[in-house]
């Protein structure tokens, strides 16, 4: 396992030097941000087995909170943790009334929350800028040097994604992680065994939201702009699909699913008007033939 991790690390470190095209590297960077969101989603959906379509809403809250604080003069290293904390608190607002629900009722509640957040982002113009969004967001400074260009941001985003993956793997093997897995396998038996399922689901949802908040902060600093378009329920369904295709309950599954649905649209663009048709068919075939995920 250590040899495999070492080879993967080396491959990721040298990958940008073989890509060449800055557009391809930009797609990879967006994929790394999406990976953080999907790894976070894995806590509540993969580990706990709960359907959550609010991940894009948490992503948007983290992005806008970071942008707002940085435009007020705070540095990234203060604004992003504060934004992630705000996102975690918002997950508690959602979780307290809804996490006693089960199965599809919880899914409908998270869709409702996602739609409400989308409407707030569009109509709260004094804070969010409305449909025009917020512009001129400063970039990230690291040890006094401002990050510039796709390559520097690639290594920066890669470090955050690697840390998020490492933490997710570590949590799975703890008592908290085992409680999440017990809840996923059979919630009633977990309750009989003494697991406070509502508390465990609240923690899992908070972790998911914090990951999304961190990803949102990274996103706005990377592109310097934020608008409501990227935080819709449709985007939440895409993140959910990434996790399902890769394999729920597995950090590797989150990686495989994110890579697949980030790369597949780019690989099919040469088909022009047939692009979306074959993309959709490809996703359906993967889910039909490998219902437990590619990983």
Characteristics of this structure?
two-stranded antiparallel sheet, globular, 4 strands, mainly alpha, 295 residues, single chain
- Element order: H for helix, E for strand: HHHHHHHEEEHHHHEHHH
Counted by DSSP, the helix tally is 14
Instruction: Provide the gyration radius in Å.
Output: 19 Å
Relative strand content: under 5%
How many beta-strand segments?
4
Helix content: over 70%
Query: What oligomeric state do the depicted chains represent?
Result: single chain
Average pLDDT level:
90
Largest sheet: 2 strands, antiparallel
Structural class: mainly alpha
Strand order of the largest sheet: 1-4
CA-based shape? globular
List low-pLDDT spans.
Answer: none
What is the end-to-end distance? Answer: 16 Å
Description of the molecule:
With 295 residues, the chain is mainly alpha-helical. The chain is built from 14 helices and four strands. Helix content is 76%, strand content 3%. A hairpin with a 2-residue loop joins strand 2 and strand 3. The longest helix is centred in the last third of the chain and has 27 residues. 42% of the residues are buried. The model has no long low-confidence stretch (mean pLDDT 90).
């Amino acid at each position: 396992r250590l040899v495999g991790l070492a080879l993967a690390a080396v491959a990721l470190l040298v990958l940008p030097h073989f890509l060449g095209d800055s557009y391809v590297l930009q797609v990879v960077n967006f994929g790394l941000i999406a990976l953080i969101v999907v790894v976070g989603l894995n806590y509540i959906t993969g580990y706990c087995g709960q359907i959550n379509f609010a991940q894009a809403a948490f992503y948007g809250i983290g992005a806008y909170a970071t942008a707002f604080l940085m435009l007020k003069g705070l540095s990234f290293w203060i604004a992003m943790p504060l934004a992630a904390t705000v996102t975690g608190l918002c997950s508690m607002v959602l979780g307290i009334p809804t996490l006693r629900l089960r199965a599809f009722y919880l899914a409908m509640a998270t869709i409702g929350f996602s739609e409400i957040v989308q409407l707030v982002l569009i109509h709260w113009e004094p804070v969010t800028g409305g449909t025009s969004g917020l512009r001129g967001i400063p970039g990230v400074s690291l040890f006094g040097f401002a990050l510039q260009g796709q390559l520097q941001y690639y290594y920066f985003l890669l470090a955050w994604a690697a840390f998020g993956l490492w933490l997710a793997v570590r949590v799975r093997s703890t008592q908290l992680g085992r409680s999440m897995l017990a809840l996923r396998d059979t919630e009633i038996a977990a309750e009989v065994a003494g697991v406070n399922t509502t508390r465990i689901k609240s923690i899992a949802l908070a972790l998911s939201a914090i990951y999304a908040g961190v990803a949102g902060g990274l996103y706005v600093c990377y592109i310097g702009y934020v608008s409501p378009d990227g935080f819709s329920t449709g985007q939440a369904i895409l993140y959910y699909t990434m996790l399902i295709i890769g394999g729920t309950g597995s950090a590797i599954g989150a990686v495989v699913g994110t890579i697949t649905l980030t790369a597949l649209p780019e690989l099919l663009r040469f088909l022009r008007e047939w692009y979306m048709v074959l993309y959709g068919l490809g996703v359906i075939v993967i889910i039909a033939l490998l219902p437990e995920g590619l990983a």
